Amino acid sequence: MDWNSVAFAFGLTMFAGLSTGIGSAIAFFAKKTNTAFLSVALGFSAGVMIYVSFVEIFVKARTELTAELGEGPGYWATAAAFFGGILFIAIIDKLIPSIENPHEMHKVEEMEDVQAMKDKKLMRMGLFTALAIAIHNFPEGLATFTAALTDPSLGIAIAVAIAIHNIPEGIAVSIPVYYATGSRKKAFWLSFLSGLAEPVGALVGYLILMPFLSPVVFGVLFAGVAGIMVFISLDELLPAAEEYGEHHLSIYGLIAGMAVMAVSLLLFV
To answer: Which string of b and e fits 111-139 if b means at least 16 CB within 10 Å?
Structure first.
């Protein structure tokens, strides 16, 4: 066991998860939401995750599983694990009530809505949003950790993509909590702590799976990770990118993310 690799993978997962704090800080210190930038950034994040899922992660999983199980059964197992990952994150998404789902985007300008601060229900909304984000971040943490443990350069790319994805989630937690309490400090820390679910997800997943790690388990897990990231990109990132800005900006960001990911992978060939 290479503990340096484990520590590096865990550190990347921690960075990705705690970037919710960046979103919270933006909410408090920016005068206006830069919607164009957020739209491009979220599209970019989706591009990175979609490209790397299909071109790199799915292929590695298939290679591992076909080597162990044979060409036909290995490919079937890869496809099943991929859609299993999608089903897993979709079920998590479905279990969260829509009113408390972190997909609802918020802008910094909402901080100026004084009337909203009087609404006592907002604290509950903020707490449930933090919980919803924590639940979403759990499998994301496992995805980042698994990728980083297998291929550090791949792990860095995924960690950065997920970090970008977590910034607006930090805004989504901090705004209603600030409304309800008037405390920037409470709002920031609740937002920051919701991101801890990613390293916790990585740690719990690793401890549970460590005794069973084999080429087949690794292949299934990796294909599942690809499914999780594709679902997050299509269900969360791209809709959020379009909500923040123009349709074309999100698509330009998507293509740029794919191109940067392609170049970065080619540099390591």
So the answer is: beeeeeeeeeebbebbbbbbbbbbbbbbb
- In the numeric block, the tokens 């074309």 are attached to 248
* pTM of the shown model: 0.68
**Among 249, 216, 212, which Cα is nearest to 81's?**
216
Write out the chain's pLDDT in tens, 269 residues.
Answer: 577 888 888 888 988 888 888 877 776 665 555 667 777 877 888 888 898 889 888 998 999 899 999 999 999 999 999 999 999 888 877 776 554 444 445 555 444 454 444 455 667 666 766 776 777 677 778 878 888 887 888 888 888 888 887 777 777 777 777 777 777 788 888 887 888 888 888 888 778 877 777 888 888 988 998 898 898 888 877 887 777 667 788 899 899 989 988 887 777 55
DSSP 88: H
Question: Whose structure tokens read 């993310």?
Answer: 257
CB contact at 8 A, 138 and 197: yes
Calculated CA dihedral for residues 104, 227, 161, 200, nearest 10 degrees = 80
* Dihedral sign for Cα atoms in the order 102, 25, 200, 55: positive
Nearest to 231 by CA among 132, 62, 94: 94
